[in-house]
Amino acid sequence: MRRLSRRKALSLVKELDAFPKVSDSYVETSASGGTVSLIAFSTMALLSLLEFFVYQDTWMKYEYEVDKDFSSKLRINVDITVAMKCHHVGADILDLAETMITSGGLQYEPVVFELTPKQREWQSSLHLIQNRLREEHALQEVLYKSLLKGAPTALPPREDVYIQPPDACRIHGDLYVNKVAGNLHITVGKPIHHPQGHAHIAAFVSHESYNFSHRIDRLCFGEEIPGIINPLDGTEKITYNNNQMYQYFITVVPTRLNTYQISADTHQFSVTERERVINHTAGSHGVSGIFFKYDTSSLMVTVSEQHMPLWQFLVRLCGIIGGIYSTTGGWSHSRIHLSQIDMLKTDSDHLLIYFKSVSSVFLITIMPFLAKKNKLFLVHSFCRATGIH
Fold first, then answer.
1. Is residue 356 part of a domain?
2. What the protein does (predicted)?
């Protein structure tokens, strides 16, 4: 009984088979079918390889939300060289709340303003990258993902000893400020703080020594990430006027960066530049110097690196293979059906000719007998039916 029930179950399962097998005796190969199969397999391999490259690639996803962190401090990383001696210039920050942040975190280092050939080559390469970034905004995603493989973006040190005495001052370091609008300025004289505000002592500096030609080797906000190029990195301004004023209007956007190489809280910023000559008689008032007026955005950007999941890659791969196989198989079968129809049409024509010849022989055989019986009308009817004239 168990064997019978098992056989019935197997027979039932066989009846439910949606993929019946075809005997090899009914399968016929052809040169055209082999060519189609070769093209199909080559296309499958090529598209599968391209799909694997897409699977290996990643993309950046941008999400925006309101920045709810108001209590933390904003870090400013500065590395600026001014074409004046260090005891003639001073740098400090005054924010919107009239809070003065002194330059205690900054260092003043006497240097030579002119770059060496190696440093000038580095600066030219940085300018080229900056120009490409302004034209192709998608390159920023490449920087996020690769981080220039950790390559340093700071100015390389001088490879030779100073031949001439230092004629410039390198101001570098970091400052922590409130997350409100502020003004980082570098001007003549050291800053001092008093109840009425703040000032710079410039009485002992001759007007002829004013020279605010400068080079920004590094200016960024937040955590400093190696390999990220900021908009003002490598900027160089040369002036021959003692009353030159440079202004940089900066909008800082908090950015949370999550990639497969690094996870950090940093800041992006956009900048607008302006420069003019101070001339009180012509109505151009102000103070000579370099001014960075920054403001923080209320939105925070989260940049995360995304990757295609494995299941999606497998589904797309199956779609490629199945689609090509079905398309080429249907086209090959349609050709076989058309050839079979042509064969059947040819066979029917041969059968009709054979039937007409047999009918003619049969008619010639029985015609004398029919003529004796006066039944010629049957002959005419038979000829009409068979198409014999």
1. yes
2. Plays a role in transport between endoplasmic reticulum and Golgi.
